[in-house]
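subagent[fold] <- orchestrator: predict structure for attached chain, return tokens only, no commentary.
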Amino acid sequence: MLTVQETAARLRDFDNVLILTHVRPDGDTVGCAAALCAALRTLGKTAYLLPNPGLTDTTAPVAAPYLAPEGFTPDKVVSTDIATVGLFPDNALPWKDRVDLAMDHHPSFEYFAKENIVRPEAAACGELVYDILRELGPITPEIALPLYVAVSTDTGCFQYANTTADTHRVAAELMDTGIDYRAVNKVFFRTKTRKRLALEADMLGNMEFYDRGRVVFLMVPISLMERIQATESDAEDLSSLGGQIEGTDCAVTFRELRPDVWKLSVRTGDRINATEVCRELGGGGHAAAAGCTVEAPLAEVKARILSAIARHAPDFG
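subagent[fold] -> orchestrator:
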């Protein structure tokens, strides 16, 4: 595995770079990719992000200045915040065996690239990318803003348990470049559409509790999205809702992607390791935040994830 210094050295030698982000892209993958692209361009390199069809109203503006034109043929391919090729969007699959460098922070990272760097203890991949880009040159506001998006979104605006002192130090140094972090916080954390509020109301009105109230299930079926006429932007980061419910330390959000295909997002406290739970259903992630996709009727999916939780939750009952 590469060190930060070795990774920076590789990037100095790269040119004509295509940067990949993961399916259903969040602020961390997009922010890291945009910051890396900006840094490479500062060095005089040609670099672009592969357009991701899952970009939302909040993440699309971060990626917009860097999207690859149609027909761009790279010499080097880099991925940011992608743990496995199973998380590649469909249009990234042609590159699955051609990734030259992968940067990630997930404990479930699968070392799929020719060269890899991973920091599982980092709250966000943005922390790792920040250290790498510092080796390439000064962190300009153009680089700092998407990195702030990366670090702030993967820590829930520094509220999640994964936040560390290093996270705050990185954020402070990014803020010191003069970026408009207030606008980022407003867009990502303090603005909700009416449709988003309607989604949350339905989820909370139909939530289910298990394990003496410590485990909560929240459902987002396709029928709910259609009834409210909600978009992907309205549904962004719905998995953070369950963790706010008093008395729970394990929240599972069930998002129906296609009929009987459910994306599960698991958020846990110290009692339950989310990665171990999701690994039983073919997924992975972090100890406190992990996910998996299961193809089955909802009742069966609930039973399977509840059984997995019970096996990994002390004193389940």
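orchestrator: received. Logging for downstream: The longest helix spans residues 27-42. The chain has eleven helices and eleven strands.
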